[in-house]
């Protein structure tokens, strides 16, 4: 049997570059939508309807930093305290009259939540012991109709919720990063996006008065 032509047996450099480019384009479009911030108009609309769920990771841990502590050694750093205040003020700018706020009882999450909000924050053990728990069920139990839900928690709880929603786990969320979900009532909540601490200013879209 005659041998195949040389070009058929060995792809050219141009073909290899083309295949690589197509692979990168395809990879880009299959990345989880949750890696991008949600649409500002959609966020504003759902927040007004009381259909937003926010998971906020606590601020920078003092026991894993060389920065001065805000207080107790198992809490957050002093420099993270101001970031927490700004983040809380930004969220409060959308209005908190129809919002329930919970946090893990650990010092770092309690400090973060108390610095973020002047409103009452209720401590909940399930926002810490979530590694082997059903985060989705707890969220459904605590999400009241027409009320937003803010949960100040830990990175493991992000992972557990994604598992409950049959979603691939992403990278470990940064300190203060927020996972945004839109409540679909009877169906599982929809992951609308992720917001870094520096992305909130771009998201804000004619917030309601608090």
Automatic annotation (TrEMBL):
SUPFAM superfamilies: Phosphoglycerate mutase-like
Organism of provenance: Pseudomonas triclosanedens
Organism superkingdom: Bacteria
InterPro entries: His_PPase_superfam (IPR029033)
Protein name as catalogued: Histidine phosphatase family protein
């Amino acid at each position: 049997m005659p041998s195949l032509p040389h070009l058929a047996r060995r792809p050219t450099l141009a073909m290899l570059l083309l295949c690589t480019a197509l692979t990168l384009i395809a990879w880009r479009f299959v990345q989880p939508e949750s890696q991008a911030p949600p649409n500002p108009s959609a966020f504003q609309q759902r927040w007004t309807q009381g259909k937003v769920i926010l998971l906020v990771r606590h601020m920078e841990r003092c026991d894993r930093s060389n920065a001065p502590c805000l207080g107790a050694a198992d809490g957050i750093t002093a420099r993270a305290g101001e970031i927490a205040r700004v983040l809380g003020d930004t969220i409060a700018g959308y209005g908190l009259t129809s919002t329930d706020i919970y946090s893990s009882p650990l010092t770092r999450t309690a400090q973060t939540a108390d610095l973020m909000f002047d409103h009452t924050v209720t401590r909940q053990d399930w926002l810490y012991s979530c590694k082997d728990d059903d985060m989705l069920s707890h969220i459904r139990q605590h999400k009241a109709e027409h009320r937003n839900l803010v949960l100040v928690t830990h990175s493991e709880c992000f992972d557990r919720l994604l598992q409950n929603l049959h979603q691939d786990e992403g990278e470990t969320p940064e300190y203060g990063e927020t996972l945004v979900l839109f409540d679909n009532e009877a169906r599982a909540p929809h992951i609308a996006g992720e917001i870094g601490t520096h992305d909130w200013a771009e998201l804000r879209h004619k917030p309601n008065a608090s």
